[in-house]
Amino acid sequence: SMKLPLSGCSFECYKEVEIKSCCPGYWGPDCIGQYRHTSSSSKSQKGFAGTACEDCAPGRYSPTCSSVCSCVHGLCASGIVGDGRCTCFSGYTGPNCDQELPECAALSCQQNSRCIEEALTGQLVCQCLPGYQRAGAKCLSINPCLQRVCHAQASCVHTGPNQHLCTCNEGYSGDGRVCMAIDPCQTDRGGCAAESARCVYDGPGRSHCECLSGFDTLSGGGCSLKNSCTPDSCHRNANCSTVGPGQVECACLQGYIGNGKVCIGNIMERLNDLNTEPGGQWTGQLRSLSWPLQNLGPFTVFIPINKGFKGTPVRTLIADRSKATYLCKMHLVAGMMQFDTLKKTDVFYTLTGKSAETDTSEGDAQTKIRIHGGRKKGVIIQSNVVASNGIIHIINRLMESVPPIVESNTEVARLKDFSLGKTPLASLLDQPGPITVLAPTTAAFDAMIEEHLKYLMSPDGHSKLLEFLRNHIIPATALEIYNAVSTPRYVTMANQVLTITGQILVNGAAVLEAAVEAKNGRLYVMDGVLTPPSIEPVLPSRCDITETKIIMGECVACSKLLCTLQLNGHGTHFSKTGQFTSCWNRKTLKPRRCNFVEAVRITSCISVQIPACCKGFYGPDCRPCPGGYQTPCSGHGQCSEGVSRNGTCSCEPNFSGSRCQYCSSSNKYGPNCDRTCPCIHGQCDNRPDSDGRCKVDSCQQGYTGPLCDRQTAACGAQAQFCHAHADCDFSQGTVKCICKTGFQGDGITCVASDPCAPPHRGGCSLNAKCIKTGPGTHVCQCLTGWREDGDECQPINNCNSPDRGGCHPNATCVYVGPGQVRTLISAETPSVTVSLFNCLCVQASCLLLSSQWTCVCDEGYVGNGHVCYGTVEQVSDGQVQSAGSCLCFQLTLFPGDFRKILQKQHPASFFVPITDFSLFFFFFFFFKVLVPDRTLSEGLLATLALRPEFSLFRSYLIDYNLTNDIEQADEFTIFAPTDAAVTEYLKKMATTRYHVVASQRLLKTDLQLGGYKETMLGFSFQLGIFPRDGKLFVNDAQMNSSDILSGKGVIHGLSAVLQINRNRCDDLTYTKVMGNCVDCLFHQNKICPNDTIPDKSVRRTRKCMFTRTFEGEWLPRVGCRATCLQKKIERRCCAGFFGEHCEACPGPKGRPCFDNGVCVDGTNGTGVCRCNEGFNGTACETCQSGKYGVHCDQECECKNGQCNEGLKGDGTCECDVDWRGVHCDQTDEQCGSVRCHGSANCVTGSSGPQCICAAGFKGNGTFCQAIDPCVVDNGGCSLYALCKRTRPGRRDCVCNAGYAGDGLVCVEINPCLKGNGGCHANADCIHVGPNKTSCVCREFYTGDGKNCNIIDLCQKNNGGCHRNARCNMTGPGTQSCTCRQNFIGDGVTCKGTVARVSS
């Protein structure tokens, strides 16, 4: 190897290196945190101290804190601005105060004394330190307790030199210097219930409770109301409860209605009462028929009197049970139809499905009914006989029976034997049963969309046909019509819910014949079909597009044309002829010459299948748009349809919902959502297809009816039910319903009077419209283009406005009418651009496909729409036709000279002049449409779909429509939690369990009074039910739907997710108690008492003795006693919460008393804030008067002015009139020739004298006006306070009625904090608003909350005890069961002894 030196070059190179460095105030490898003066955790340099290293350490000084103080007996000038000088104590000298004066050293001062110079003589003497006094040669600590410094009822403790502490004795309160005797009766009545006891003072800190008259003293010390109920107090079918001393309350039993004094039973009981009432109008005139109407309903019954059966012997009638039942159904109608409603109803439907009519042509007294198809008419001779499950109308004759479409036959006929025509349902009618078949007629099938029926009957539609037929069968029940109308929701074999409504409509299809009896079930004949949603859409949803493309093949030798060519996977076969023009494809293609000699290039025609959805479908699998494919978005919006779309509905104005199925306003309805709901005292059904009636079960208490417009309390003896806007009037001698002011009608129906009705139109001007604002009230509003001028409306000239009617500066504004202008454009007008949508295509058409404009080749041409080709002859001649894409035109206004420039710069453009010189259209033709590149969101979803462990995360992306936002970025990174992680997180959140109240089925009526309910999380996590302004709130969420029944439970809808209220910190402990003495092996009684559980940690049991009867004798036996655990919960509130229900203390959430004081919290607390020194206010939210600063520790020094005080104040002064200076302590000066306002002061500055408005005034000094602080932000007062101006610039804040506080913070007055808010001792007081309460009896008590009685469990079903046992109440909600003599057992189960059995 050889090394040769060679000359070369070296280059200077640079490498870019990134050096990691944090910005000031950030630290660590990840540069986290930011420097804050109050919370920085920065490390101080040597010599510095403080949270932010802002000061020197003790004993150091200089700007660098590097110098150390050397003072020994003195004070050092330390700190960043200090110079280290020493200020010596008396008796010391020297630069470092380390030299003791010789005179002091000679004195040799004793302990607790020091050398000091006397002020008068200047001599050095030994004096005792502060807090000490001389006793001979010593200095002893001064004890103030040796003198009488504390109150006589207080004790004194010596705590240090001349220091002491006074503490009041037990039973007294005060600061120790003054002690007052505590009277417990002055605070919460000494714990005595205000309604049942009085407090008696026994001495300082001592009292007892004595029961009032009408109350009994209980063994536990409480007072119980004496039972005042007698057998004659209430109706025999009502419960009696004592609600006060000598006062009782009656409530009808379940299944009865009335006021308790009179209780009305069901229809059958009511008929029996009418028929047997001594001396009654209908005594003995109503036959007793056994109809199953006791527990079902509600029904309307037309009862004929006995004379009405004339010509129809009852024996003959009841001989054929089936016909008798059918005739009875002819007299029954589902629901309650009062006489007034019946008169207004032309047609109604009986339970057979047959229709009937009402004839009122002869007046109310001769109102008649007739079954369609019958000739007889029955006159209603008495109406509105109310029963608990319906209403009775007595008629004078029996309605004749109209033959049914299908006769019942329970002996032989099966459902398949009924002749229903040729229907697809016939094959399913032969099931063994019991089943209920909803059979459409042949006409119903003929009315189906022809394509639907053909598809279902085809082999491709077999699976959907089976599902379709299964939706017409209700399995495992022979459904009677009585049950159908009483429980109107049933599930079919297709697992779909069917709803049966008043006219007997099944999902909208009318029942022509109801409950036809057969051996294997019941048949309902219907005039419509029931298509289940699971097979929608019935027709296939894909509309794929087949597109033909022309491609060029490879250049090959002509000799190879004898072989089969594969062009992009498509076989195109040719046979060699003289012109090479013959091929085996459907279209004849001519070979083209190419570069090789004796070679040819083949042009091939291929077809491509492009996935596409039919109209009304979206997504890769072409699912139906929300609202259905026939009416996407319910016909009130635009569906994002197509393969690449997500099916989201863009609702039109006035509509909302996932499928635009609701009106955006909760008080609107109708096809255009522009009608105001007539629902009065309920929640409006705000759907476009509703009739404006109230939602089911949404009526407020006391109202009923479809519009919640009828009162539930009857008016007068005739049982009239007044309208919601009517009162029951007794003043005219006769009781009747009268509409309220602002409404008109007969009292049964009241409508709001319209003050805007013509011809007066509310007295509004001709150029104004009258707007109704409420019943009998209105406002006048000028029309567009007019302005208000008193009671008149004057035209508006927009050309006089600052923007000149919106005209261009180079245009002339011409007034043509009120609020209207016309623009005249000059020749110098700049360009204006306006968008106009259209498209340009050649040999193609622009069509709207899948919600987007697409170019499609015309007939006779093939291609993708952007390029279209003709026949082979046209192609060979080079006649390739091109087509433009769909374009968005821009209409542009240009000045005249600019047209030439445009033509030169845009040769592919042309313009068309219009007759009006002021406007030109310029159309730009582009041969390529600029379409933004859009990445389909399905890419992310498809990837996640391949990973099942991310299914929950993927569903959340879809639910919250996040995929589009994510994929709009060029790149993205997702940290996806697994399903297990999401599930575990939701378990820890425990939010769902907080929404469930177990062991109670609470309907809306049970919640009307409010209360607190324990959730599945336990007692410490309660829900508060609060009635406010006619609405119910759960915590802070409003109930917007209610009473959704679900098996054994009920569901109520909320407007928000409930946030767990962590206000209780209860303490749970267990106490060991001994169990019952039972047989060690065969114990029949409970081994542990009620409310206790066995202690599993203790395995051994203790021996005991018990007795058992044998042959009538009591014999002692050895038994066992277990160790049990009794749970005890000590109710406690968390810090910052107070009262029995642990309400929040005043102040922001998480900051009681604004952290400027201590709240008197706890279950016995009052919620009062005890502010720290310097702070003041209801929630310690401000400073005391005359103080300012964040700690309220700075004193204002304004002498004659207003100080900028408070937490945000800086202590500056605004001087009163005639005062000036920093502290407003200098008299005013004259400003020479400058004349100041009477409310201004003259202040001399560097620029000379100047006038400044005094405190409470604003202006330039020569003019000042008083400041009204209430104008801006209510003067800083609370939202629940009234701001009152007192002096210029000053105000007082006064809390509104129902609120208490300093005005800056106003809290709702809670009457529950005193005397339980007037509620009974066994009731919960619910704070429902400002100074408002609701009383609810606690569990195991009944009453109205003001009076609560213990529920006697033994009165119902013997308290759950055996029939041979005695039930004894032992306390609220608890009872004991004891077997009677000659029976043994635990009371729940009792068995006879040998002696009992032998006897």
From TrEMBL:
It is a single-pass membrane protein. PROSITE patterns: EGF_1, EGF_2, EGF_3, FAS1. Disulfide bonds join 69-86, 88-97, 109-126, 651-660, 1171-1180. Residues 61-98, 100-140, 141-180, 225-264, 621-661, 752-794, 1143-1181, 1227-1265, 1308-1349, 1350-1391 form the EGF-like domain. The keyword Phosphoprotein does not apply. Its main location: membrane. Keywords: Disulfide bond, EGF-like domain, Glycoprotein, Membrane, Transmembrane, Transmembrane helix. The keyword Flavoprotein does not apply. Pfam families: EGF_3 (PF12947), EGF_STAB1-2 (PF24887), Fasciclin (PF02469). It is found in: Membrane. Signal peptide: none annotated. InterPro entries: EGF, EGF-like_Ca-bd_dom, EGF_STAB1-2, FAS1_dom_sf, FAS1_domain, NELL2-like_EGF. Residues 264-399, 399-530, 937-1058 form the FAS1 domain. One of its GO terms (cellular component) is membrane. GO terms for molecular function: calcium ion binding. This is Stabilin 2.
